[in-house]
Amino acid sequence: MEPSDELNGYSTTWEWPVVASHQQHAERVALLRPILYEMLYDMDTAFALESQEAHVARQGKGLSLNVSSGGMLLFLDHQPKVNQAMRIHVPTPVNKAKTPTLAEVRWTRKLPFANLGGLYFVGLKFVL
């Protein structure tokens, strides 16, 4: 399923199409945790980059909503580009240990609440 265009910031409706999917989502588990991330580069152009551009472009913190073996759903205050590579730090049961994981942005959806500014659901696919 391809994401629809970004919603008008003043819209009060949820204009997200619901279509049948062949993907298995039964393994998703709720995981409400702060997630540190680093934006890297577009996956499509990763091999073409030979300069400093491949380094971290932005760092921040988001909120994970759920996780599966294949990816994670994040809640962010900005809209990353589809195919953007991110290094996310997945929390572990031991507070002092964090597991950095490479992920790719697969889709984004803006929340249609004008008074909240730009808040986005971001679907990630684990790469490593």
What order do the helices and strands come in, and which of them pair?
Layout: E1 29-42, E2 58-67, E3 71-76, E4 84-91, E5 98-110, E6 120-126
Antiparallel strand pairs: 1-2, 1-4, 2-3, 3-6, 4-5, 5-6
What can you see in these coordinates?
This protein has a single domain (29-126), classed as Thrombin, subunit H, CATH 2.40.10. The protein has 128 residues and is mainly beta. The two termini are 23 Å apart. The model is unreliable at 1-11 and 45-54 (pLDDT under 50). 0% of the residues lie in helices and 45% in strands. It has strands at residues 29-42, 58-67, 71-76, 84-91, 98-110, 120-126. The protein has no helices and six strands. It has a six-stranded antiparallel barrel with strand order 1-2-3-6-5-4.
Total count of helical runs of at least 4 residues: 0
Would you tell me the overall average pLDDT? 76
* Spatial strand order of the main sheet: 1-2-3-6-5-4
Shape: globular
Number of domains: 1
Helix content: under 10%
Question: In the CATH scheme, what's the topology name?
Answer: Thrombin, subunit H
The CATH class is identified as Mainly Beta
For the record, the CATH architecture stands as Beta Barrel
Instruction: Tally the beta strands.
Output: 6
Point out poorly predicted stretches. 1-11, 45-54
Class from secondary-structure proportions: mainly beta
Q: Please trace the helix and strand order, writing H or E for each element.
A: EEEEEE
> How much strand content do the residues show?
over 45%
CATH-assigned homologous superfamily: predicted glycosyltransferase like domains
Compute the separation of the termini in Å.
Answer: 23 Å
